[in-house]
Amino acid sequence: MENQEQKSEYTGKLFLIVGPSGSGKGTVIERIKGKYSGFAYPVSYTTREMRNGEEEGGSYHYVSKEKFEKMIKEGEFLEYAVVHSDNYYGTSKKDITEPLKRGAVVVREVDIQGFNSIRNLVPKKNLVSIFMKVSDMEDLKGRILRRGKISDEELEKRLDSAKKEMAQAGECNYQVENKWGEIGDSVYHVEKIILAEIKSLY
Ligand code: 5GP
After folding, report:
1. What number does the ligand 1 atom closest to the CA of 81 have?
2. Which pLDDT band holds residue 137 (cuts at 50, 70, 90)?
3. Would you call 109 exposed, middle or buried from its count of C-beta atoms within 10 A (0-12, 13-18, 19+)?
4. Strands 87-92 and 44-46
5. Residue of the CA atom closest to atom 4 of ligand 1
6. Does domain 2-42+103-201 match CATH 3.40.50.300?
7. Do residues 121 and 167 make contact, with C-beta atoms less than 8 angstroms apart?
8. Which residues touch 143 (CB under 8 Å, ≥6 apart)?
9. How far is it, in rounded angstroms, from Cα 71 to Cα 38?
10. Which among 193, 158, 149, 191 is positioned nearest to 23, based on CA atoms?
Protein backbone atom coordinates (compact mmCIF):
# COMPACT_ATOMS: atom_id res chain seq x y z
CA MET A 1 0.00 0.00 0.00
CA GLU A 2 1.45 3.32 -0.98
CA ASN A 3 0.66 5.59 1.95
CA GLN A 4 -1.61 6.33 4.89
CA GLU A 5 -3.79 8.69 2.84
CA GLN A 6 -4.69 5.88 0.44
CA LYS A 7 -5.44 3.49 3.31
CA SER A 8 -8.09 5.82 4.64
CA GLU A 9 -9.88 5.72 1.27
CA TYR A 10 -11.16 2.21 1.97
CA THR A 11 -14.82 1.90 2.67
CA GLY A 12 -15.12 -1.85 2.10
CA LYS A 13 -14.10 -4.81 4.24
CA LEU A 14 -11.55 -7.50 3.57
CA PHE A 15 -12.23 -10.93 5.06
CA LEU A 16 -9.09 -13.02 5.26
CA ILE A 17 -9.65 -16.72 5.72
CA VAL A 18 -6.57 -18.15 7.40
CA GLY A 19 -5.61 -21.63 8.60
CA PRO A 20 -3.58 -24.66 7.61
CA SER A 21 -3.68 -26.17 4.15
CA GLY A 22 -6.49 -28.70 4.19
CA SER A 23 -8.48 -26.92 6.91
CA GLY A 24 -11.33 -26.26 4.49
CA LYS A 25 -10.71 -22.58 3.64
CA GLY A 26 -11.16 -23.11 -0.09
CA THR A 27 -14.39 -25.08 0.32
CA VAL A 28 -15.85 -22.50 2.68
CA ILE A 29 -15.03 -19.70 0.22
CA GLU A 30 -16.51 -21.67 -2.71
CA ARG A 31 -19.79 -22.10 -0.79
CA ILE A 32 -19.91 -18.42 0.20
CA LYS A 33 -19.17 -17.48 -3.42
CA GLY A 34 -22.07 -19.63 -4.61
CA LYS A 35 -24.42 -17.72 -2.34
CA TYR A 36 -23.04 -14.16 -2.42
CA SER A 37 -22.11 -13.27 -5.95
CA GLY A 38 -21.93 -9.57 -5.09
CA PHE A 39 -18.79 -9.98 -2.99
CA ALA A 40 -15.33 -9.72 -4.58
CA TYR A 41 -13.23 -12.92 -4.67
CA PRO A 42 -9.74 -11.93 -5.86
CA VAL A 43 -7.74 -14.60 -7.65
CA SER A 44 -4.19 -14.97 -6.31
CA TYR A 45 -1.06 -15.90 -8.26
CA THR A 46 0.95 -19.02 -7.62
CA THR A 47 3.90 -20.88 -9.08
CA ARG A 48 2.62 -24.26 -7.90
CA GLU A 49 1.34 -26.87 -10.35
CA MET A 50 -2.34 -26.95 -11.15
CA ARG A 51 -4.10 -29.83 -9.35
CA ASN A 52 -6.70 -32.11 -10.90
CA GLY A 53 -10.02 -30.34 -11.00
CA GLU A 54 -8.49 -26.86 -10.83
CA GLU A 55 -8.61 -24.37 -13.67
CA GLU A 56 -6.78 -21.18 -14.58
CA GLY A 57 -8.47 -18.23 -12.93
CA GLY A 58 -10.36 -20.34 -10.37
CA SER A 59 -8.57 -19.76 -7.06
CA TYR A 60 -5.32 -18.94 -8.82
CA HIS A 61 -3.56 -17.65 -11.86
CA TYR A 62 -0.83 -20.23 -12.45
CA VAL A 63 2.40 -18.53 -13.50
CA SER A 64 6.07 -19.41 -13.90
CA LYS A 65 8.66 -18.45 -11.29
CA GLU A 66 10.11 -15.95 -13.79
CA LYS A 67 6.74 -14.25 -14.36
CA PHE A 68 6.06 -14.17 -10.59
CA GLU A 69 9.45 -12.58 -9.91
CA LYS A 70 8.81 -9.99 -12.63
CA MET A 71 5.50 -9.14 -10.97
CA ILE A 72 7.30 -8.74 -7.61
CA LYS A 73 9.74 -6.28 -9.22
CA GLU A 74 6.90 -4.36 -10.81
CA GLY A 75 5.17 -3.96 -7.42
CA GLU A 76 2.04 -5.84 -8.44
CA PHE A 77 1.57 -7.68 -5.15
CA LEU A 78 -0.05 -6.47 -1.97
CA GLU A 79 1.79 -9.36 -0.32
CA TYR A 80 3.49 -12.53 -1.43
CA ALA A 81 5.13 -15.42 0.36
CA VAL A 82 6.95 -18.67 -0.23
CA VAL A 83 4.54 -21.24 1.17
CA HIS A 84 5.51 -24.75 2.40
CA SER A 85 9.12 -23.77 1.56
CA ASP A 86 8.78 -24.11 -2.19
CA ASN A 87 6.19 -22.15 -4.17
CA TYR A 88 5.32 -18.48 -4.39
CA TYR A 89 1.77 -17.34 -3.63
CA GLY A 90 0.70 -13.69 -3.86
CA THR A 91 -2.33 -11.45 -3.77
CA SER A 92 -2.63 -8.83 -6.47
CA LYS A 93 -2.55 -5.31 -5.04
CA LYS A 94 -5.16 -3.90 -7.39
CA ASP A 95 -7.55 -6.84 -7.05
CA ILE A 96 -7.76 -6.16 -3.32
CA THR A 97 -7.46 -2.39 -3.04
CA GLU A 98 -9.84 -1.45 -5.86
CA PRO A 99 -12.86 -3.28 -4.43
CA LEU A 100 -11.99 -1.97 -0.95
CA LYS A 101 -12.07 1.59 -2.32
CA ARG A 102 -15.50 0.95 -3.91
CA GLY A 103 -16.85 -0.23 -0.57
CA ALA A 104 -17.06 -3.91 -1.52
CA VAL A 105 -16.86 -6.99 0.64
CA VAL A 106 -13.71 -8.86 -0.34
CA VAL A 107 -13.05 -12.50 0.60
CA ARG A 108 -9.66 -14.21 0.16
CA GLU A 109 -7.72 -17.07 1.72
CA VAL A 110 -4.04 -16.61 2.52
CA ASP A 111 -1.46 -18.44 4.60
CA ILE A 112 -0.30 -17.05 7.95
CA GLN A 113 2.52 -15.06 6.32
CA GLY A 114 0.00 -13.36 4.05
CA PHE A 115 -2.14 -12.51 7.10
CA ASN A 116 0.89 -11.11 8.93
CA SER A 117 1.75 -8.86 5.97
CA ILE A 118 -1.78 -7.69 5.24
CA ARG A 119 -2.58 -6.85 8.87
CA ASN A 120 0.17 -4.19 8.63
CA LEU A 121 -1.16 -2.81 5.35
CA VAL A 122 -4.92 -2.66 5.69
CA PRO A 123 -6.45 -0.61 8.53
CA LYS A 124 -8.10 -2.62 11.32
CA LYS A 125 -11.53 -1.21 10.56
CA ASN A 126 -11.37 -2.64 7.03
CA LEU A 127 -9.99 -6.06 7.94
CA VAL A 128 -11.54 -9.15 9.52
CA SER A 129 -9.53 -12.34 9.96
CA ILE A 130 -11.13 -15.74 10.41
CA PHE A 131 -8.97 -18.71 11.37
CA MET A 132 -10.19 -22.16 10.32
CA LYS A 133 -9.09 -24.66 12.95
CA VAL A 134 -8.86 -28.42 12.54
CA SER A 135 -9.59 -30.84 15.38
CA ASP A 136 -6.19 -32.54 15.33
CA MET A 137 -3.17 -33.28 13.19
CA GLU A 138 -4.32 -36.81 12.25
CA ASP A 139 -7.56 -35.37 10.93
CA LEU A 140 -5.62 -32.77 8.93
CA LYS A 141 -3.26 -35.42 7.54
CA GLY A 142 -6.26 -37.41 6.30
CA ARG A 143 -7.75 -34.35 4.60
CA ILE A 144 -4.51 -33.43 2.85
CA LEU A 145 -4.11 -37.00 1.59
CA ARG A 146 -7.69 -37.14 0.34
CA ARG A 147 -7.12 -34.03 -1.82
CA GLY A 148 -4.81 -35.91 -4.16
CA LYS A 149 -1.50 -37.62 -4.51
CA ILE A 150 1.39 -35.87 -2.79
CA SER A 151 4.87 -36.99 -1.82
CA ASP A 152 5.83 -37.83 1.78
CA GLU A 153 8.12 -34.81 1.70
CA GLU A 154 5.31 -32.51 0.58
CA LEU A 155 3.03 -33.93 3.28
CA GLU A 156 5.68 -33.30 5.94
CA LYS A 157 6.09 -29.69 4.77
CA ARG A 158 2.34 -29.10 4.95
CA LEU A 159 2.04 -30.61 8.44
CA ASP A 160 5.01 -28.58 9.58
CA SER A 161 3.46 -25.34 8.23
CA ALA A 162 0.16 -26.35 9.87
CA LYS A 163 1.74 -26.54 13.35
CA LYS A 164 3.19 -23.05 12.92
CA GLU A 165 -0.11 -21.70 11.63
CA MET A 166 -2.16 -23.24 14.48
CA ALA A 167 0.10 -21.49 17.00
CA GLN A 168 -1.08 -18.12 15.65
CA ALA A 169 -4.80 -18.90 15.57
CA GLY A 170 -5.46 -16.62 18.54
CA GLU A 171 -4.23 -13.59 16.63
CA CYS A 172 -7.17 -13.70 14.23
CA ASN A 173 -10.43 -11.90 15.03
CA TYR A 174 -12.44 -15.14 14.90
CA GLN A 175 -11.76 -18.87 15.05
CA VAL A 176 -14.02 -21.44 13.46
CA GLU A 177 -13.45 -25.13 14.06
CA ASN A 178 -13.96 -27.15 10.90
CA LYS A 179 -14.83 -30.63 12.12
CA TRP A 180 -14.52 -33.46 9.63
CA GLY A 181 -17.85 -34.02 7.86
CA GLU A 182 -19.33 -30.78 9.16
CA ILE A 183 -18.35 -28.30 6.50
CA GLY A 184 -21.94 -26.98 6.39
CA ASP A 185 -21.57 -25.80 10.01
CA SER A 186 -18.29 -24.05 9.24
CA VAL A 187 -19.81 -22.28 6.26
CA TYR A 188 -22.75 -21.22 8.44
CA HIS A 189 -20.40 -19.76 11.09
CA VAL A 190 -18.24 -17.91 8.57
CA GLU A 191 -21.34 -16.55 6.84
CA LYS A 192 -22.75 -15.35 10.19
CA ILE A 193 -19.48 -13.55 10.98
CA ILE A 194 -19.41 -11.85 7.56
CA LEU A 195 -23.04 -10.73 7.74
CA ALA A 196 -22.61 -9.34 11.26
CA GLU A 197 -19.41 -7.52 10.32
CA ILE A 198 -20.83 -5.90 7.20
CA LYS A 199 -24.03 -4.60 8.79
CA SER A 200 -22.27 -1.29 9.36
CA LEU A 201 -21.41 -0.96 5.65
CA TYR A 202 -25.00 -0.75 4.48
P1 5GP B 1 -2.72 -24.57 -1.80
O2 5GP B 1 -1.47 -24.94 -2.53
O3 5GP B 1 -3.19 -25.65 -0.89
O4 5GP B 1 -3.79 -24.04 -2.71
O5 5GP B 1 -2.35 -23.33 -0.87
C6 5GP B 1 -1.28 -23.40 0.00
C7 5GP B 1 -1.39 -22.28 1.01
O8 5GP B 1 -1.19 -21.01 0.38
C9 5GP B 1 -2.75 -22.20 1.69
O10 5GP B 1 -2.55 -22.00 3.07
C11 5GP B 1 -3.38 -21.01 1.05
O12 5GP B 1 -4.31 -20.38 1.90
C13 5GP B 1 -2.18 -20.12 0.84
N14 5GP B 1 -2.44 -19.05 -0.13
C15 5GP B 1 -3.31 -19.05 -1.17
N16 5GP B 1 -3.27 -17.87 -1.82
C17 5GP B 1 -2.37 -17.10 -1.18
C18 5GP B 1 -1.89 -15.78 -1.38
O19 5GP B 1 -2.27 -15.06 -2.27
N20 5GP B 1 -0.94 -15.34 -0.49
C21 5GP B 1 -0.47 -16.10 0.53
N22 5GP B 1 0.45 -15.57 1.35
N23 5GP B 1 -0.90 -17.36 0.73
C24 5GP B 1 -1.83 -17.86 -0.11
Report:
1. 22
2. confident
3. buried
4. antiparallel
5. 21
6. yes
7. no
8. 22, 23, 24, 134, 180
9. 28
10. 158
Query: From CA 143, how far away is CA 94, in angstroms rounded?
Result: 33
Does the pLDDT at position 66 exceed 80?
A: yes
Q: From the CB of residue 7, how many other CB atoms can be counted at a distance below 10 Å?
A: 15
Find the mean pLDDT for residues 57-71. Answer: 97
What is the distance between the terminal CA atoms of the chain, rounded to a whole angstrom? 25
> What are the Cα distances from residue 148, in Å, to 51, 52, 77, 85, 154?
8, 8, 29, 19, 12
The minimum-distance atom of ligand 1 relative to the CA of 109 is 12
**pTM surpassing 0.70?**
yes
The span from the CA of 191 to the CA of 29, in Å, is: 10
The number of helix segments (H) and strand segments (E) in the chain equals 8, 8
Above 70 in pLDDT, residue 2?
no
Q: Which residue among 109, 134, 165, 166 has the greatest number of ligand 1 atoms within 8 angstroms of its CB, and so is best to mutate?
A: 109
DSSP 23: S
User: What does the domain layout of the chain look like in residue ranges?
Assistant: 2-42+103-201
In terms of residues, how long is the chain? Answer: 202
Q: Which residues pair with 53 in a beta bridge?
A: none
